[in-house]
Amino acid sequence: MSSIAIVDYGMGNLRSVSQALKHVAADGTRIEITSDRQHILNADKVVFPGQGAARDCMRSLKEYDLVDVVLQASEEKPFLGICMGMQVLMQTSAENDGVDCLGKFSGQVKRFKDAPEIANSEEKLTFPQMGWNQVFQTTDHPLWHSIDDAARFYFVHSYFVSVDDPSLSCGETEYGIRYTSAIAKDSVFAIQCHPEKSADDGLQLLKNFTQWDGKA
Known about the structure:
Elements: E1 3-7, H1 14-24, E2 30-34, H2 37-42, E3 45-48, H3 54-63, H4 67-76, E4 79-82, H5 84-87, E5 92-93, E6 99-100, E7 107-111, H6 116-119, E8 129-137, E9 151-157, E10 159-163, E11 169-175, E12 177-185, E13 188-191, H7 199-211
Main location: cytoplasm
Subunit structure: Heterodimer of HisH and HisF.
GO molecular function, one term: lyase activity
């Protein structure tokens, strides 16, 4: 029987992620919301959600003593980051006047309003970006299986990931600028949107994750 651990560090609506995974996972798959270090490390796959501010997320990860566990899990098994769970994989975030993040990948989290294309634009955008938007698949990946290019997913965020290595990006979205909305490397896939709130395509992505062996 396979198992999926959803990392609970007090930052996210984990129940909706759990319910969506239960809906698409194979019969007998054990899905557990947990902050137990050993349970996370023993799981076959790990989901790392998150919402809120970067500083709060990093503080909670440290308070729950999960920083090293999250990084270890991302090295050893199929690992899915969702929303803030994608952003804090970067080195730093501009949120809260600057926050050191997990540093799994080289890159920064930047504020939409600080992007020159947006700051100097006459287009009136609202922040946070809230609602449905397209994800353009920039590379093939098993988690895109049976999902059309430019499919629409549900987003809620005011900051975006800027990767130093373009090969990390496997999905892009346009909102005033074109930015990285999904990254993938080795056994890690992370996405800015909320797949658990993204109807059929979101469920398909989660289903693909439950079947993924962690290889691109």
